[in-house]
Amino acid sequence: MTADGHDHPYAHDHPHEHDHPHEHDHPHEHDHDHAHEHAHPHGGVRGFLYDLFVPHTHDAADSIDDAMEATSAGVRALKVSLFVLLGTTVLQAVVVGFTGSVALLADTIHNFADALTAVPLWIAFVLGRRAATRRYTYGYGRAEDLAGLFIVVVVALSAVIAAWEAVDRFVHPRPVEQPWLLVLAGLIGFAGNEAVAIYRIRVGRRIGSAALVADGVHARLDGFTSLSVVLGAVGVLLGIPLADPVIGLLIAISILALLWGTVKSIGARLMDAVDPEQLDRVEHALRHTDGVLEVQTLRVRWVGHRLVGAATVVVDTPGLADAGRVAERATAEVRSTVGNVDEFTVTPTAVDAAPR
Fold first, then answer.
1. What CA–CA distance (Å, rounded) separates 204 from 213?
2. Mean pLDDT score of the chain, rounded to an integer?
3. Rounded CA gap, 102 and 162, in Å?
4. Could you count the other beta carbons within 10 Å of the beta carbon of residue 286?
């Protein structure tokens, strides 16, 4: 689950210039700045690592706006990643049997736990399809975030088990057999996790799922922990048998450390946090709707991987029917510009009635 509050699966790159076929009788000025500044590092090693582990993009031309299609894409991604990670786990488990490596055992346990995390997310996506009721008026989209909490618990448990096995190996040493097989197993673990990471992140961006993107980033991190198994194998080959349990313990510690980013990401969603850049896009769409003079209030929240929100706008016409048409155009503009929007309510206010 991602990771530092910057999960941007729904970033959109859209032009800020609009050609209107008619002129307004009022000065239609927008004095807000659209040149958004980001604190993301973009150069050097730091920028490379940031882009690798905190995916961020403005290119969302292929964003899926239809709720049912988005859910289907999410379920499909979970199915594929489940079978890929299970296959990776089975291959690594076979190598554990031949080598007795505790480092590889720790990585295998964690990969198996990661494969199982697809199950609660799968259930959450299916629940999210259910229609809203009088009791659950926003529907069941939040099941996705609750699944994220379950994933945190499962991954944390896998880290504890891996740490326990590593400490036990310190107390009861056992030689590692055929260390060259560990190199192969580490590369298998890396390849499987990286394939899952690419797929989950790509689909998560398209459908706006923070949980799926965070799960993809987590898989990418797991790929690099799998490579650490190779380091343990090299240590054993160099005559340092303790390298294997040391690497196993480091893997367990790294899992817990990296889990914090997922906790923050899921916690932010549960607290209705929205990326300010996402809010800017919604506001931009409203302000550039013909007939809208000002955006008074704006609230947006995520329900699973879908957006809902409401806004109050000042319009340039006092007539109720005309104001309603402006509100309809503003809603349509938000849907076409932002995407991933289920419900968005625009309330028009006449310019004379707007508070000064």
1. 5
2. 76
3. 8
4. 24
On whether the pTM is more than 0.85, the answer is: no
Number of H helices, E strands in the chain: 10, 3
Note whether 149 and 121 are within 8 A (CB).
Answer: no
Under a CB-based contact definition with an 8 Å cutoff, are residues 286 and 257 in contact? no
| Sign of the dihedral through C-alpha 152, 73, 277, 39 | positive
Helix 243-270, helix 210-237: angle, nearest 10: 170
The phi, psi pair for 253, rounded to 5°, reads: -65, -40
Whether 299 contacts 343, CB under 8 Å: no
Nearest to 187 by CA among 247, 227, 237, 228: 227
Q: Report helix, strand or coil for 346.
A: strand
Residue 5, phi then psi, degrees to nearest 5: 90, -10
Q: Which is more confident, 40 or 75?
A: 75
User: Residues 267-317: pLDDT tens digits?
Assistant: 888 888 888 888 999 999 999 999 999 999 999 988 877 788 999 999 988
Tokens of 77: 């991604």
Task: Look at residue 355 in the predicted model and tell me its pLDDT.
Answer: 57
Report CA torsion sign: 290, 294, 295, 297.
Answer: negative
The whole-angstrom separation of Cα 244 and Cα 248 is 6
Burial class (CB in 10 A: 0-12, 13-18, 19+), 182: buried
Contact (CB, 8 A) for 251 and 228: yes
Give the tokens for residue 51: 């882009």
Give the CA count within 13 Å in the CB-facing half-sphere of 173: 8
Beta bridge partners of 314: 294, 349
Report how far residue 120's alpha carbon sits from residue 17's, in angstroms, rounded to the nearest whole number.
43
**Nearest-angstrom CA–CA distance, 104 and 232:** 9
Please, which residues have CB within 8 angstroms of residue 353's CB and are 6 or more apart in sequence?
none
Q: Which of 255-259, 320-324, 337-341 has the highest mean pLDDT?
A: 320-324
